[in-house]
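Hi team,

Filling in the usual template for the complex we talked about on Friday. All components are listed, including any nucleic acid strands or ligand strings, so the model treats them as one assembly.

SUBMITTER: L.P.
PURPOSE: interface mapping
COMPONENTS: two
RESIDUES: 781
SEQUENCES:
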Amino acid sequence: MKNETTRSLTIGAIAVVLLMALQMRSHPAGTVSLPEDLEPVQKLQRQPNSSKSLQAESDENKSDSKQSLVQAIRSTKECYASEKCDFPQTDSKSYEIAVGQSLKSLLADYRAKYGTDPKNHPEMQGLARDFIQSPDEYVQEQALEMFSVLPPSSENLESITQAMGDTTDPLLVDQTMDEMKRYMGTSEEAQVHMYLRGLLGDGAVFSSEAAAKRILSFINTGSYPGYEGLARTLPANSTVGQNLRTALDEYRRLQTGG
Amino acid sequence: METKFYYLIKMVLALGVLFVATGAAAASATPDYYKCTDRVSGEYNFGRAPQACNANAFGEDKYVLNTFGALIYNDAASASERARYVDEMNAVIKEAAAYYLKKRKPSVSSTELSWWILGIQATASHESYWSHYRKASDARLKLMRGDVGHGHGMMQIDDRAHFPAVSNGTAWNLTSGLTYAMDIFYKNWENAPSQSCVKSATNYEARIRASWAAYNGGSGKICRWTDPNDRWAENDKNFYNHYSKRLWEKYNPSASKKASIDIACLMEKKENCPAPGGVVESPALVSGVLYQSSAAYCVVIGGKASCVKDARDAICLKQVIGFSANEAVAVKDSILANYSPITLDRHALCKAYESTLYSVGANIEMQKGANLRATPGGGVVAVVPKNQVVTILDFEIRNAPDNDRYYKVNYQGKDGYLFAGNKNDYQTWATVDTSSALPSSVAHVGEFVKVVNSAGANHRVNPGGALLRLIPKGTQLQVLEVFVEDSNNKVYYRVSYQGQSGFIYTGLLLPTDTTAEWTEVLR
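RESULT (copied from the run log):
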């Protein structure tokens, strides 16, 4: 409950409202007739509706439009520092959130339009490494999406583990662990386990709980001792500790037939 | 009506600039006052900060009333209600903040701990005047909403930035919301000492102000409080006012008061924890009382203790001996040890306690549509329609003597809990279906499974019992019985192999389903 002073919307902000209004028209809550005891459906996703970038593109001029898109991404990023872009300043969070939403859409556009072409991978890799450091979790989500279509590399893994070590978002942990699976069995696997042990032992509560739920698929002969050692340090009543110990027990049963 | 009008206005505004939208992309799609019904105002004071909307948009009222009763501000109560509320909430915030920091930093100094607690108190004070649940003048249970409805609850978790935590009920649940907010605050707390405006980890006042500035404005604003010309400098001034004056102390909350809820259990398990019922010092334990040791909940009868591992199953100990209060009295492990405690299996015990409970692994057909919630009491993630058949993956019983039951199921790829009635009306909610062959990870009697674990599956006389032989990977077996036990819902199949009947282990269902690692159901 911060300052609720309503400031006049800029043209860009009104455009935001347009998109919101159009999206609301197709919202399930407004169209589905439900029994009295039921509440409208909400998917467990980051937002109630998808948002679209306003970036237009001509198929005949992809190179130009790719450059325009990258330029739009760069200039939108600068909005954080300048605080002079056309985003609403209706409360202390609104501007930064809107910049993040814009970046999210632009990055999603880039990945969708250019991410499948290996020629663009160096550029997309640069974007992914840059935006995985973003303070906005929606932007980080898009960076992880970009990493997921790039070939694994130690530099990419380093960027991810550095940025995701103190994440407070359990959905980003899920996404990160999906990405980490691609490094299992590679020379970078030890870095994966170091990251996961750090998250389980010292991470944010909701993040470490998300990691503990899925840790079984990361336990193998080589990693078992590290996780077992960590489990011994976690309190008996800790949900993370209990789930880690459960995973270790299950791993042992899998090795011996149950 | 208000909501429709609101969107109409937005549409009109938007149509006026239909073709000039170039610079800015869409902001978060959550509208102002997202899922807000029966909005009421309030006052800028503890417990009643404006605005507030019906709490049941994000979780069950029944759960709140049963668990957080003392932490609901009652508008209709007498003038002393505010002091009572502040006293109760102060104990909760202090215990929760302390539990959190000791969990993240086990060796934290007492000095840092006391400043951290102050930081959380001040943050909750500024964000909402410690307002969370409130019984308003319309007699409905409300959840405090600020920032044009985007901020949810005492710590004002913003639905634009944290939509999943809002929609799944994390922000609605007082202790979960507080924990989630402390995750964010802690990140700033740890980041602050390296900032030019703080410089030192022991510069605690600056650390609090920086942590809050980042909490309020984003991590890039961590030093905002030092810039009087910042657009939002007023926020930092207001925060400093709450912090420096300790506004809550006006109501003289007791320094020694204990929280009315089990903070540690609720912060770890999120829901369904008996309230603290004091501490027993005498070595003589009595019947009719629920005891809580470090690792179990127990009742005593005939000099013996019967226990369950999890708080959520404590209700089923009523099968052993009745206890009336929904409270657990803390007892030392050394005292409990004198009562030869035995741990009972939750499945057998709860089925004995409530015979109408359906078993884990059973298929049920919904007799009416039901909300699928992220937790039994939490936010809605889907609606399971009438006549839909789903497989039970877990259960919880709550609210004796009616014994409400909640079943965990997977519906269209989403895990969640369904409310399925009480002991009187359960059949109007769901009935067992023995005919459907669902694409469930748990096989049903008569179906065939193939062993997929590379080490094979041990064939044992009974679940976890003496080994008969190892059944190799690739072997196909017919399921003769499904047996589930333990708090992780371990699944066993009785199968016949080489002419001998016995059990194979086939994975657990909690915290995540591992059955696919063991067997593949052949359908």
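MY TAKE: Confidence is low (pLDDT under 50) at residues 1-44, 49-59 of chain A. Residues 50 and 255 of chain A are 43 Å apart (CA to CA).

Thanks, L.
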